[in-house]
């Protein structure tokens, strides 16, 4: 394995020297460091590195190079190293400058840079290195070199091998997949010997042969069986809303347990880059956000019961009784429903048969390396689809975004619309739907229908990523929990007259038709389908829990 390289380009010798000093002092044990004084020299060097099979992890460039924006040079980097992180070096005095901010936004939207970094101050400048570590980790994840990565080896792409990858994705655990007969697969098996497939090789070297979902959850950390316990607060669902409620509930002294049929993160783990989340100017993956929130809640004292399905709840004299699929019961003083929602199924039988073999629900972040140089289609018009398109464009030959609506603006944030439109290898087909497709063991074609005139077209496709609609996980709820026609939980003043009369008081804003049971995040009727709003509702729900418990 070659040693990856960090490249810095600046035509000001003094400024380049300060950058080189920091790079060599901190990164030379693990990376090659190359600092050059002109774009001409840098482009020639990258051409030589490409020919030599070298890898470049990070390229830094001055704000101005030979009188031109440094972002123009960084835009050329992708021709040589499509997965290299690219950052613009800006002076401390330019932070907050309107023109600089506009230029950075435009460069990101056009796919020329990943973000910026403030030039290093006299050593030690830990802010500079924190920023660079973020870029280097992002590169490592795209190259499947992230720390604590799990190897999955299977005999086929689909079936149980794909199910295991889905479980690892839900657990927000970095992983990579190799077919047993591939070069990578044979190299892994040479170290672990003949085993039963599919298998997982953990970062510790421990091998798990065809593990159950519960085995994987236990390997991610200690999970509990909450049966027979009493809690102040039971949270059902471990997506952004549930994690937020867990952080605030536990940190404020409530005995809290979070129960989920999967693991951490919910649908958010499929987001490859959330760029508009407060406090993460460089963006954050849904999986990383989920891992951070889980660690917060865990340290504050929240307990987690993973791979355990809640099957019912009822209000009894001694509290709210939550039933588990194991037959166990948990008693709570208050419950927050935060089950979220998942992508709706496409319902095309020939494509459902290829689930995991070219057809994926979400999974753009984890499956992206599989589609290098191929034709890829994404179905969906919301932010998650836009984020997936941007991410996959760094791997695929071309990404086609298939949207039922007449415009992207109907369901996608402005900044993402702009970025999608500016990415040269993304095509957008509005007013279109997927109605067919197939392949022999792996997807090879799709059938698209124009919704305006009904015309159908067959197109070649190597992969299809489906991110359509939202289906709430509420099928298990008892009839006493009021829902709208689509299955979302109704709360607060929108409850029906019968529920309002039964309360004998005004229900709290997030309270369901069952007193003491609240709903937060995507599962709630009328919620804003954004990660930030789900996190906000999870925290607000805890304030209402305190008021309920004080009565």
Report on this structure:
With 551 residues, this protein is an alpha/beta fold. Strands 12, 13, 14, 15, 16, 17 and 28 form a seven-stranded mixed sheet that branches. It has a five-stranded parallel sheet with strand order 2-1-3-6-7, sandwiched between helices. It has a five-stranded parallel sheet with strand order 19-26-20-21-22, with helices on one face. It has four domains: 5-142, Response regulator (Rossmann fold, 3-Layer(aba) Sandwich), CATH 3.40.50; 150-219, Glutaredoxin (3-Layer(aba) Sandwich); 230-342 and 471-550, FAD/NAD(P)-binding domain; 349-466, FAD/NAD(P)-binding domain (3-Layer(bba) Sandwich), CATH 3.50.50.60. 32% of the residues lie in helices and 24% in strands. It is globular, with a radius of gyration of 25 Å. It contains 16 helices and 28 strands. α9 (240-251) packs parallel to α10 (286-300) and α9 runs parallel beside α16 (531-550). It starts with a strand and ends with a helix. The model has no long low-confidence stretch (mean pLDDT 90). Residues 231-538 form the FAD/NAD(P)-binding domain. It catalyses: [thioredoxin]-dithiol + NADP(+) = [thioredoxin]-disulfide + NADPH + H(+).
Give a brief rundown of this model.
Keywords: Flavoprotein, Oxidoreductase. This protein has 551 residues and is of the alpha/beta class.
Secondary-structure map with pairings?
Blueprint: E1 5-9, H1 13-27, E2 32-36, H2 39-51, E3 56-62, E4 64-65, E5 68-69, H3 70-80, E6 85-90, H4 98-109, E7 115-118, H5 126-142, E8 150-154, H6 160-170, E9 175-179, H7 183-192, E10 199-201, E11 207-209, H8 213-219, E12 230-236, H9 240-251, E13 256-259, H10 286-300, E14 303-305, E15 310-316, E16 319-324, E17 329-337, E18 341-342, H11 349-352, E19 359-361, H12 364-367, E20 375-379, H13 383-393, E21 398-403, H14 414-422, E22 426-430, E23 432-438, E24 445-450, E25 456-460, E26 463-466, E27 471-472, H15 497-503, E28 517-519, H16 531-550
GO molecular function: thioredoxin-disulfide reductase (NADPH) activity
Catalytic activity: [thioredoxin]-dithiol + NADP(+) = [thioredoxin]-disulfide + NADPH + H(+)
Protein name: Thioredoxin reductase (NADPH)
């Amino acid at each position: 394995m070659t040693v990856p390289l960090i490249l810095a380009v600046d035509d000001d010798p003094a400024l380049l020297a300060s950058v080189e000093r920091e790079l060599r002092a901190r990164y030379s044990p693990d990376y090659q460091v190359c600092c050059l004084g002109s774009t001409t020299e840098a482009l020639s060097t990258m051409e030589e590195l490409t020919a030599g099979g070298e890898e470049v992890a990070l390229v830094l460039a001055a704000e101005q190079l030979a009188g031109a924006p440094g972002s123009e040079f960084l835009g050329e980097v992708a021709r040589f190293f499509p997965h290299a992180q690219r950052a613009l070096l800006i002076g401390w005095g330019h932070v907050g400058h309107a023109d600089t901010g506009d230029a950075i936004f435009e460069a990101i939207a056009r796919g020329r840079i990943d973000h910026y970094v403030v030039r290093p101050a006299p050593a030690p400048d830990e802010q500079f290195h924190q920023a660079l570590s973020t870029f280097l980790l992002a590169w490592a994840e795209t190259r499947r070199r992230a720390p604590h990565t799990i190897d999955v080896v299977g005999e086929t792409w689909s079936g149980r091998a794909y199910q295991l990858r889905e479980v690892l994705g839900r657990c927000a655990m970095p992983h990579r997949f190799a077919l047993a007969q591939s070069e990578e697969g044979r190299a892994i098996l040479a170290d672990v010997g003949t085993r039963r497939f599919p298998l997982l090789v953990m970062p510790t070297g421990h091998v798990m042969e065809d593990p159950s979902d519960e085995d994987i959850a236990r390997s991610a950390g200690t999970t509990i069986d909450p049966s027979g316990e009493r809690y102040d607060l039971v949270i059902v669902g471990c997506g952004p809303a549930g994690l937020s409620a867990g952080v605030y509930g536990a940190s404020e002294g409530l005995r809290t347990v979070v129960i989920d049929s999967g693991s951490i993160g919910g649908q958010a783990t499929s987001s490859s880059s959330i760029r508009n989340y407060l406090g993460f100017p460089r963006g954050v993956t849904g999986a990383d956000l989920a891992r951070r929130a889980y660690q917060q809640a865990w340290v504050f004292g929240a307990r987690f019961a993973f791979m355990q399905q809640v099957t019912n709840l009822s209000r009894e004299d001694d509290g709210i009784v939550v039933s588990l699929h194991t037959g166990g019961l948990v008693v709570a003083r208050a419950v927050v429903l935060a089950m979220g929602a998942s992508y709706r199924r496409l319902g095309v039988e020939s494509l459902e048969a290829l689930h995991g073999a070219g057809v994926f629900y979400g999974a753009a972040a984890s499956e992206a390396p599989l589609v290098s140089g191929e034709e890829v289609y994404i179905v969906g018009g919301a932010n998650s689809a836009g984020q997936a398109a941007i991410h996959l464009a760094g791997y695929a030959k071309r990404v086609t975004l298939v949207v039922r609506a007449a415009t992207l603006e109907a369901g996608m944030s402005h900044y993402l619309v702009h970025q999608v439109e500016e990415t040269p290898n993304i095509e957008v087909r509005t007013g279109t739907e997927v109605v067919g497709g197939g392949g022999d063991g792996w997807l090879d074609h799709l059938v698209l229908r124009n919704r305006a005139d009904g015309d159908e077209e067959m197109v070649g496709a190597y992969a299809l990523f489906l991110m359509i609609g939202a289906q709430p996980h509420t099928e298990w709820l008892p009839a006493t929990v009021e829902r709208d026609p689509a299955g979302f939980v109704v709360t607060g003043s929108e409850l029906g007259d019968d529920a309002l009369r039964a309360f004998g008081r005004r229900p709290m804003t997030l309270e369901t038709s069952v007193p003491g049971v609240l709903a937060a995040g995507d599962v709630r009727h009328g919620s804003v389908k954004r990660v930030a709003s789900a996190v906000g509702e999870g925290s607000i729900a805890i304030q209402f829990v305190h008021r309920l418990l004080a009565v």
